[in-house]
C-alpha cells in the first residue's frame, strides 16, 4: 500500500511541473504525494488572488485520499494578501476536511524562524509588483528584507526547452539558473536566502548555495514539504537538500 506512513494532499498551480517530482524525490519511505491543480490565469496580484478563490475544487478532489496533511503550495498566491488571509485559507481547508493544512507562506515563515533568520535576502521569478507584495508580507511578520530581486521570466521571449538561453516559463529553467539567481540576489549581512516560488527547481542546488553563501537557504518547495511532513506526523531527517530538512518543526 502506498502511503502506509502518511499521504500528503498537494494543491498546486495548474501549470506547475516542479512540485510533484521534487516532493517524490525527497519523500521518506512510506509517504506518498497526491496532487490536485488550481487554475491561475496569470502571475499578477489580481490573478493570484483569484487563484486563492479557486482552491475549494482542489480540496474536493483530494478529500477522499485519507491524507495526513494538506499543503496549498503556491507561494505567490500566499503572499499577495495578508497573513490573516493566508491563515484563513488553511483554516477553511481544515474545517472542510478535518486534516492539518499548511500553506506556502506559513511554511516559509516557520522555516525562517526555525533556522534563526531575521535578515533575509529574497530571490524570485516574479514581476516587480508581486515582489513588492512578497517584501511587505515578510516584513509585516517582523523580518527584515535586506534585498529582493530576481528575473521576471514573463518578459523573456520563449526559446526551445533545450536552448542554453533562459526560457520564459519558470518551470523550464535548469537548476543552475536558480543557483545563479540566488547568488545574484544574496546580500552580505543576510542571515538566510529565501528562494521564492513553488514552480522552480531548487532541490538540486540548495546544498550548493548553503555551502557557498554560508547561510541557511530556504526554498518554497523545501519549506512546504518540511511543514507538510511534520503536520502529517512524519519526523524524519532528510539529508542533501539543505539544513531545514534535517530539523524538527
If you had to describe this structure to a student in words, what would you say it looks like?
It is globular, with a radius of gyration of 17 Å. The protein is of the alpha/beta class and 249 residues long. Helix content is 40%, strand content 17%. The chain has two domains: 126 residues, Rossmann fold (3-Layer(aba) Sandwich), CATH 3.40.50; 112 residues, Rossmann fold, CATH 3.40.50.12500. The relative contact order is 0.17.
Order of helices and strands: EHEHHEHHEHEHEHEHEH
- End-to-end distance: 27 Å
Structural class estimated from helices and strands: alpha/beta
Number of strands: 8
Strand arrangement across the biggest beta sheet: 2-1-3-4
CATH class of the largest domain: Alpha Beta
Q: How many domains make up the 3D coordinates? A: 2
Shape: globular
Topology summary:
Blueprint: E1 6-13, H1 19-26, E2 31-38, H2 45-53, H3 55-62, E3 69-72, H4 75-79, H5 83-97, E4 101-103, H6 104-114, E5 119-124, H7 128-140, E6 144-150, H8 175-185, E7 192-195, H9 206-213, E8 217-219, H10 220-231
Parallel strand pairs: 1-2, 1-3, 3-4, 5-6, 5-7, 7-8
Annotation keywords:
249 residues; alpha/beta; Rossmann fold; 2 domains; four-stranded parallel sheet; 8 strands
Short description:
The protein has 249 residues and is α/β, with parallel strands linked by helices. Helix content is 40%, strand content 17%.
